[in-house]
Amino acid sequence: MTQPRANSAGRVLFASLIGTTIEFFDFYIYATAAVLVFPALFFPNADPTTAMLQSLATFAVAFFARPLGSAVFGHFGDRVGRKATLVAALLTMGLSTVAIGFLPTYAQIGVLAPALLALCRFGQGLGLGGEWGGAVLLATENAPPGKRAWFGMFPQLGAPLGFLLSSGTFLALTHFLSNEDFTTWGWRIPFIASSLLVFIGLYVRLRITETPSFAKAIERNERVEVPMFTLFREHSRTLVLGTVIALTVFVVFYLMTVFALSWGTSSLGYSRETFLQLQMISMVFFALTIPLSAVLADRYGRRITLMVVAALTMIFGLAFEPLFVANDPMACLLFLILGLSIMGLGYGPLGTMLSELFPTSVRYTGASLTFNLAGIFGASLAPYAATWLATEFGIAAVGGYMAVAAGLSLFALSKTPETQYRED
């Protein structure tokens, strides 16, 4: 009698989706709070612009922690296995997020408050550095032939779902609490409540078994002693190209979320509630274009799909000035929908392609590090740089910044072979 597969498709896809949804929920509630409340609570002695920039600087800390998370969790993911490493990454991210909800403010403990905030943010980045790559491998290494991009897009759906959940939480708090209550204690609720989501994620993750690809790697004795060393020694060119390929999606996403929220609620005069509503509507389009892009990538290839998206991103850069303006919510909504739809088309097949670039023995480390190095160059400084560009040169300069990033990704894709038909 034939034994059934230990991991059913439904269990694998749900485990990969729920984990990244939780991780990105935790990540985005920080991004939202960094714009809405952290400047006043943790950097009160600075002028409003400087306080905002300081708050965004702590936001950037996580992106520099993510490659370290890739190295640490990637090592154990490639040596010990995907399942145990995914559980550890989720715990690291979750505990760091809950701790933020209990932090004292600058008024209570002085300069130690922003230092502790940065430390917790570092922990968030460390956990996410190990989470994303493992979730993608959990999906793609269990995928049937011809369906790797489809399976690989489920972890990617965690990004819009996590954003919708975090924005919806802040929107509800804004609606039901006064500004004073929200600033005093209401902002802590999403951070503390994330502990419930972590328990759900742990329960699901602990019920899965190891991926077939990693099990085969053990049977064939393909594991290497130090995956990071092997990665840099034998796959450094691939690492660089993959990082540049992933650059655009980070720039687009954080310009359309963190920067847009900051600029829209300050310089353009939109209320916090209105702009969060506009972002939530546009995030639905982000979620819808992810599965569409996966279908295209499985049919036509990952490389050509991402090249078309990079070209569209360059064109979209021209839309910043005419669409992202004050006192026109419909134009602003169109701007956000276009940007996040393009983001979804690029983000859907990205995880699959990055995982396919590397052999099983270093795949967890390679895919994670590539993705998170792109986070440093594409996302960590994007809100900060865009705020400076918009202040000094106008909003059109921010569109130019996006177009340049897309051009770099397009060049890297032109130097990378198609990965669709690669075997383990």
Automatic annotation (TrEMBL):
Pfam family for this entry, one = MFS_1
Superkingdom in the source lineage: Bacteria
The Major facilitator superfamily (MFS) profile domain covers which part of the protein? Answer: 12-420
Q: What is its main location?
A: membrane
What InterPro entries does the record point to? MFS, MFS_dom, MFS_trans_sf, MHS_symport, Sugar_transporter_CS
What topology does it adopt in the membrane? Multi-pass membrane protein
The residue ranges crossing the membrane are: 12-31, 51-74, 86-109, 115-138, 150-173, 185-206, 238-263, 275-297, 304-324, 330-350, 362-381, 393-413
Sorted UniProt keywords? Cell inner membrane, Cell membrane, Membrane, Transmembrane, Transmembrane helix, Transport
The question of whether rRNA-binding is a record keyword is answered with no
Q: What is the annotated localization of this protein?
A: Cell inner membrane
NCBIfam families per record: 2A0106
- PANTHER family, per this entry? INNER MEMBRANE METABOLITE TRANSPORT PROTEIN YHJE, SHIKIMATE TRANSPORTER
**This chain belongs to which protein, by name?**
MFS transporter
